[in-house]
Amino acid sequence: MSDIRLDALAIAAHRDDIEITSGGLMIKFADLGYKTGALDFTRGEMGSNGDADMREREADAAASVMGLAIRENLGLPDADVEFSRENILKVVRVLRRYRPRLVILPNSEQRHPDHFHSHEIAREACYFAGLRKLDCEGEPFRPHKILFSTYYRDVEPSFV
Prior knowledge:
about 160 residues, alpha/beta, 5-stranded parallel beta sheet
């Protein structure tokens, strides 16, 4: 178990998704003294611009700008994030390790399949992480609050 306890954890499919959807919020939280983190599902190797190594350097620089306490990457294949029990348990382990009070997930209305599957995986992991009898390492834990971020203007936000 980690010594770091997060106040907020942003989760997304690709390196740069969190910066696009929640970067300002993560900066604001860090400025207010909250411990924040990010979990990327893929290395971004299928992106039209750059490659996985370049995206890693950019993600590290962005983590510094956002004031993140941690940034992890699950290493799932880009453009092939699958909704599976195995992937849910990978996220459960992260949630149990850092025990974030707030989790920020991609909204379910997504054009890119990786974004949609990341929403499904992370949402279910937030529930399963709290099950005492789940066969997965770490102490049971469930986030206090889940927020959904969006990429689209046609989604009606509950707050801005």
